[in-house]
Design brief:
about 250 residues
Length: about 250
C-alpha cells in the first residue's frame, strides 16, 4: 500500500518519470484487482498526457484484464482510461467515455473519481469546441472536489475553467481544518496509517484506541473523501497531500 501511495504521490506532484518507475515496482508486488485497475487508469492518463498513444493504450488493455463484471467502479476506471487515450485522437468520443465513467463512479459512491471523470469530460468537450458543455462539466468537477476537500484537484479544475475563459473567484475563508478533505487531526492520523499499509488492529495499537474507534474514524474518512475502500483513501490522500506519511 505504501509503494502504491508513493507512486500516486509522485505522479500527483508531476514527477512523472519517478512516478512511472514507482508504478513499475508496485505492479510487481501483490495487488488486488481494484489497485491494478487504478494504476492502469492513472498510467494511461500519464502516457496520454505525454502524447504517447501506444503506451497509453497498453495500459488500457492491461487494466481491462482486472475488471470484475458488474462492479461499476471497475468499469468506470476502464472507461476513464479509454477516455484518456481518445483525448489524443477523438475528443468527442473521449467526452462520451468520460461521462459514462462519471455516472458509474457516482453510482458506486466514488465521488472523487467521478470528479476526475467529469474534469476529463470537460477537457474533452473543450477540445472538440463544445464550450458550454466544457464549462458545465468543469463546474461540476470543481464542486465535487470542493465538497470532498480535494484541494489540489479543485485547483486543477479551476485552472481548466480559467483556461477556457471562465471567471472563477478566489475561494473565501470557510470552516476548514487545514487538513485534506476537512479531516480532523485524529482522522488524518488514521488515514495516514492506512496509507502506510497498517491494518485496523495495527492502527489501534499505534494510536492507543480500540479497533471499534478506528472503524468509526474510517467511516468518517470514507464519507469525507467520497470513497468506500482503503484503496480509495490512499488515492484521495496521496493526491491531496503528497507529504502524507507513506506517500513521499
Amino acid at each position: 500500500m505504501a509503494r502504491y501511495a508513493r507512486a500516486m504521490a509522485l505522479i500527483g506532484l508531476g514527477r512523472l518519470e519517478e512516478g512511472a518507475e514507482a508504478v513499475d515496482a508496485t505492479v510487481k508486488g501483490p495487488l488486488d484487482q481494484r489497485t491494478h485497475l487504478s494504476l492502469s487508469e492513472v498510467m494511461a492518463g500519464v502516457e496520454a498526457g505525454r502524447g504517447r498513444a501506444a503506451a497509453a493504450q497498453k495500459w488500457v488493455e492491461r487494466g481491462e484484464h482486472y475488471i470484475i463484471p458488474g462492479l461499476e467502479a471497475h468499469n468506470g476506471l476502464a472507461q476513464l482510461a479509454r477516455a484518456h487515450v481518445l483525448q489524443l485522437t477523438d475528443a468527442a468520443a473521449a467526452a462520451r467515455e468520460a461521462l459514462a465513467a462519471a455516472e458509474m463512479f457516482e453510482e458506486a459512491g466514488h465521488r472523487i473519481d467521478a470528479g476526475r471523470a467529469r474534469m476529463r469530460a470537460g477537457q474533452a468537450h473543450a477540445g472538440s469546441g463544445e464550450r458550454a458543455a466544457a464549462r458545465e462539466q468543469l463546474r461540476l468537477a470543481a464542486e465535487i472536489f470542493a465538497g470532498c476537500g480535494a484541494r489540489s484537484l479543485h485547483a486543477q479544475a479551476v485552472r481548466e475553467q480559467r483556461r477556457i475563459g471562465v471567471r472563477v473567484p478566489a475561494r473565501g475563508g470557510g470552516r476548514e481544518t487545514g487538513l485534506p478533505g476537512g479531516l480532523s487531526k485524529r482522522e488524518y492520523e488514521v488515514a495516514s496509517l492506512v496509507v502506510e499499509g497498517c491494518t485496523n488492529s495495527q492502527i489501534a495499537e499505534r494510536l492507543f484506541v480500540s479497533i471499534r474507534t478506528v472503524e468509526t474514524h474510517l467511516s468518517h474518512i470514507f464519507a469525507k473523501f467520497g470513497v468506500n475502500s482503503r484503496v480509495g483513501v490512499v488515492n484521495a490522500l496521496s493526491r491531496q497531500d503528497p507529504d502524507a506519511p507513506g506517500a513521499g
